[in-house]
Amino acid sequence: MSPISNSKKRKERSSSVDEGGNGPSHESPSNHANDDNGDNNAATSITHEGEMPQKKFYRQRAHCNPLSHNDTFEYPLRPDQMDWSLEHYPNNSAPTVLDVGCGFGGLTVALATILPEERILGMEIRAKVTEYVRLRIVALRKEHLGQYQNASVMRTNSMKFLPNYFAKHSLQKIFFCFPDPHFKRKNHPRRIVSERLLSEYAYVLAPNAKLYTITDVKELHDWHVEHCDKHPLFERISESELADDPCVKAMQTETEESKKVDRNCGNKYYAVYRRIQQDPVTVQLWFAGNFFQKDDEKSE
Amino acid sequence: MKQLLSCDGNRILVGLKDRAFLVMDSTSASSIVELSQFPEESNVKQQQPRNDQAELNDITAVALASFALPNSKTETLFCAVARYNKSFAVYAISNDEFESLSSSKPPTTKAPSIVYQAPKRISCITYTMLSSGPELNEFIPVVITGDLAGDSYAYNVLEKGHRLLLGHTASMLTGITMLKHNQQNCIATADRDEKIRISRFPESCLIEGYLLGHTKYVTAIDAASGIAENSSLLVSCGGDKTVRLWDGVKLQEICHVSTEDTSDEIPSDIAINASGKTVAVIFDQSKLLQLYTVKRDNDVVTLVASHSVECPCHPLVITYDASNNRLLVLMREPDCFMFVKICQESGADATFETVESGVSITALRDLVTKESILLPDTILEKDKQGNPVLQKEIETRGASGEEVPWKRPERIAVAKEKQRKRRQNRREKNRQTKPKRDKEEQASTTGYLTLPHPFTPSRSLIQKDNLDYTNS
User: Fold this and answer.
1) Where is the composition biased (Polar residues) (chain B) (predicted)?
2) Which CATH number fits domain B5-44+52-381: 3.40.50.300, 2.30.30.40, 2.130.10.10, 2.160.10.10?
3) What is residue A127's predicted lDDT score, i.e. its pLDDT?
4) A69 touches chain B (CB under 8 A)
């Protein structure tokens, strides 16, 4: 069997069945058949451009330290110096929807069809997983001509470099789907939604833009709600207003992590916030009386 | 990064190793008061610090400001001193108290009024004012600190209280100053990731903008304090050996100049005068003090190197004294201290006059010699190889280029083997599931029980449980 017919088989299966190994009954017969031919490939890479990649070659440990100083990333000096046409979108225009921690790219490619007018960017810190998403998007672009031109992925640390990529008030939506909960108290500063980082998200989000969070860990959901409510620049959107928002449904069903939660019969908790219209009067004014915490109160 | 010098009018606060001194500078006599480390109650427990403890007590940052409190007519001096051991002390001295303390023999030290324990070591401090209430015209002084975790806190100087203002993720703050942007009071914070963030104060969650342009860590920033209402200037220097001038209104870079023409070393501290026409830069491990003039030429603004001053000893810190229009330079021993007067005639270029002797200068020098205080080599912390600690490590995690994992086909066999083992383990786990476990437990950990499993040996108990909650 040549590599091309292999990939066709995998693609058919991947669109109908959940990826991630449901049970040996589905995949073992073909696995035995593939075994004898796999090592004879004189290919320079495991997946060719245009082939849908297989997850098993791109697995990487889920938890990593985003605050580490050992990773080096390439990032532009300023947002206006970033050339988006090189690797990302055909015309040089900046993305408007961000999927932070996109993982294997389920939500990114789903949003590309739901929001055809916006440009979706997935950000992921792990190299192998970013490569998987990139190959997936290339394969989808090839298979569906004309579609998926507005989806792309980038390997970067969004906690540190968001202001380098995006100008003030340039994003319409940000998604935080099933972020790493970092349960230990000493690791709480690594959480992606925190008091400090919400100010940065408020800076890159346009007025009235939306911030979506979803998680299966109740404690993390309470943390998200507590911090977003406390932040003066975000206000919660009620359930009734979210009824006709297709992104909420996508966030709950299209990500790989949400499918895993479904398999394990877990609960999903989500919250959507709006970045308020920036008006000096609406931002609460601080004075000597209410500004300081007493010293015995612990800050987060 | 150390901020060891601060001044307000004729009062200078200087941090020498682990001792802080407040100097009143006047032409006739000079008086010095030492600010002690411990509050009054624990005076009896004071011991002479051992050698390694002296390191912990070293001062990392000082700041001075004078405010007339709402209920008093005289001005009170507020001194903030931050040390290596994360302690942060605030001293409140009125003018009369200063006189009495400095003239008493033997000289008594002033104890702190409030001592805070900061979560991380503080690297830079500045003062600002916070309104006491809506519609009120009264203000209270507030200290704003930047620490090594990238967080900025505001501390109350009148009673104990603090607040987290903002945070730069995992990047230490190297400089902090107040700035005016569209008539709003703003904080400018510079960090190791080449960013200078301008956030409003006191609503510090609102970011006005980022000043991006440095290609390496920023070492120091300063804002011009006396410009016209509709403009503001900020100047910064960094590890990329450039000095950049920023427009505080448009939040953009105006111009920059490379300091490599004048010195090979990294610029470590910077000061700009009140009118924003002169910029002074000192370099790490170098005796050079370089002065730049801001030239405006039909809307084109450039920084031009104008004067260089060779200091008698290595300069460590430089700060601008607005009321006397001069630069204060703290140097290593034995000379320790120097002024540079800026004489600006309208129309003509500025001229500079170094003042190396004077009442307060001599007083400080005598103090340093008498107490045998050793000033640090450099304010940029260095590691064992002599590289600045602020420099980011170059090592990349993992492979790059042609060795990336997805370009190596031999991984195909490895990945298949791993998948096979993973499936085997899952099968083992399913087989060994004890029948006594709760139904919910079984459902949540192994999702495979929802499908009929052809390879499970006929344990009728498990299969029966399957059928009960398959479609729940």
Assistant:
1) 457-472
2) 2.130.10.10
3) 86
4) yes
> How far is B374 from A216, CA to CA, in rounded Å?
57
Q: Computed from CA positions of residues B103, B109, B114, B116, in that sequence, does the dihedral angle turn out positive or negative?
A: positive
- Rg (C-alpha) for chain B, rounded Å, is 30
**A23, A68, A200: residue with CB nearest B448:** A23
- Nearest-Cα distance to chain B for A131, in Å, is 8
From the list A300, A270, A100, the residue with the least C-alpha distance to A189 is A300
Q: How many CB atoms lie within 10 A of CB B70?
A: 11
Where does the pLDDT of residue B104 fall: very low under 50, low under 70, confident under 90, or very high at 90 and above? confident
Which residues in A44-82 are b (16+ Cβ under 10 Å) and which e?
Answer: ebbbbeebbbbbbbbbbeeeeebbeeebeeebeebbeeb
Q: Which residues from chain A sit within 8 angstroms of residue B398, using beta carbons?
A: 127
- Copy the structure tokens of residue B6: 């601060």
Closest by CA to A249, choosing from A238, A257, A258, is A258
pLDDT at B276 over 70: yes
Mutation pick from A162, A199, A276 vs chain B, by most beta carbons of B within 10 Å, is: A199
How many helices (H) and strands (E) chain A has is answered by: 10, 7
Q: What is the pLDDT of residue A41?
A: 40
Tokens of B450: 């929802």
- What is the predicted pLDDT for the residue at B414? 82
Which pLDDT score is estimated for B95?
79
The whole-number average pLDDT for the span B420-440 is: 77
What is the C-alpha to C-alpha distance for residues B44 and A230, in angstroms, rounded to an integer? 45
Tokens (6 digits) for A155: 């390997």
What would the DSSP string read from start to end of B37-95? Answer: SS-GGGGGG--PPPHHHHHHH-EEEEEEEEEE-TT-SSEEEEEEEEETTSEEEEEEEEH
Higher pLDDT, B319 or A285: B319
pLDDT at residue B353 above 90? no
What number of H helices and E strands is found in chain B? Answer: 6, 28
Domain boundaries, chain B: 5-44+52-381
User: How many whole angstroms separate alpha carbon B181 and alpha carbon A212?
Assistant: 32
Residue range A247-299, pLDDT digits in tens: 999 899 988 889 899 998 999 999 999 998 876 544 556 666 677 776 554 44
**Residue B429 half-sphere exposure, CB side, CA atoms within 13 Å?**
12
Chain A residues whose beta carbon lies within 8 Å of the beta carbon of residue B395: 70, 72
Q: Which residues contact B76 (CB under 8 A, 6 or more apart)?
A: B66, B67, B68, B69, B92, B93, B94
**Which chain A residues are within 8 Å of B453, Cβ to Cβ?**
23
Highest mean pLDDT among A152-156, B71-75, B330-334: A152-156
**Residue A177, annotated as binding a ligand:** yes
Flag whether pLDDT at A177 surpasses 50: yes
Which of A35, A71, A180, A244 does the annotation list as catalytic? A180
Is A102 marked as a binding-site residue?
no
Q: Nearest 5 degrees, angle CA B189-CA B195-CA B199? A: 40
Cβ-based neighbour number of residue B291 at 10 Å: 20
Cα–Cα distance between B27 and A104 in angstroms, integer?
Answer: 72
- The chain-wide mean pLDDT, for chain B, equals 80
Please indicate whether, in this complex, the C-beta atoms of A46 and B164 are within 8 angstroms of each other.
Answer: no
| Residues B214, B242 contacting (CB under 8 angstroms) | yes
**Do B162 and A295 lie within an 8 Å CB cutoff?**
yes
The yes-or-no answer on residue A180 being catalytic is yes
Cβ neighbours of B160 in A, within 8 Å:
294-295
